[in-house]
Each structure stands twice: as structure tokens, then as C-alpha cells.
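Board notes (copied after class):
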Amino acid sequence: SLPGTPMMAVTSRGPDIMWDTDIASFQSVFLLDAIADFSEAEAGLLHEYCSNGGTLVLFAGNRTADCLNRLADAGFNRINFRGFYGGVGRFRSSMVDSADTAHPLIAPFAEDAADLTLFPIYKAARLDPGKKHEILLAAGELPLLIREQVGRGELYVIGTSLSASWSELPTAICFLPFGGSATESPKLVQESGTVRACICVVVWGASC
């Protein structure tokens, strides 16, 4: 766990989690290019999960277009996919140059010592959010972190992947604190008198 944050229990599963697990028991669900593998009914459960106070975090990947379409079909506001930026190795990269530090998720990284704006991004999905979305991070005109309020919960769409060929985000100093901040919501699970934030990481292996 991170100093000053609730202890985090992390569960790593594939898309079959929807078959045998009540995701309402998790505070946050992190999806690594995985929603494209969900049925329409399973994607609908994700919308219900968010509406009831859960936090859903989607990382981009090779199937970003399919994932965004599945989200829209499930009732989330549509984010259009306009292709990919980069993907030509590490010879061309961008960095975050615009951050909404007024938002609670980004505020802890407003200090100069934070490296949220320093890690290289080699490949990203070109995302076109709607009017009901907030852009919390961007590299030029390229939105990198999009937020949507869904009932009592939230959806975050991150325009890059956790793969090292896409960005250096996983090795950035800010990565673990950033992930910890994304789990902070009123929906905490009480376990043996200790507040425990539960994260479910859903991985679709072929694209990650």
C-alpha cells in the first residue's frame, strides 16, 4: 500500500470475471483493452456498477475502437476513436502538457516534483470526447485522460496503454500514487475494521 492511502487489495482477472464475480464488491475496476470481449449484457453491468458508485478505468490498446463502441452501447456517453498517434518506436514521443490540477485526481501532482508531465508517450489513441466529458490530461490537442460522471460513479478513459511500447507511464514515479488516487471514492469496503480499497484489474491478454 502507499503511505497515507488505504491498504489496497488487487485482484487480477480476465474478462471471465463477469461470469462468476460480483464486481460491486470492488471499489475500482481497471480494464486493459478488455471491454471489447464483454457481451452487451456484461457491458451493461459495468454501467450499472458505475451508476451505483463504482470507478471504472479503461486503458487504451489495440482494440480501443471496439472498447469505446461497447461502452457507448452500454449507455456511457460516446467517445469517438480517430485512429492512433505514434507507434513508430521510441523515436517520436509526446508528453502531457496540459493538466486540470483543480480536479481532485490530478491535484496531488500539481507540484514541480511530480513527473506526471515528464514521462514519454510513444503511442496513444486519438480520442474525441463529447460535451459531457472532462479532459483532465492532454498532450497538445491529444486528450490523454477523459472523465465522465456516471450516476454516483465515474468512468476514466486513458488514451495510452500500460505496455512499454506505448509509454513510460508504468515506470513513472507518479504511476502508483495516481492509481491509488483513482481508487479513492466514498465506496470503501470494510474488512476487519480496516478500510480496504479493492481494485480489480481485468486483462485481455492478446492485446496487452
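Comment from the instructor: The longest strand covers residues 194-203. Helices lie at 17-20, 40-51, 64-73, 175-182.
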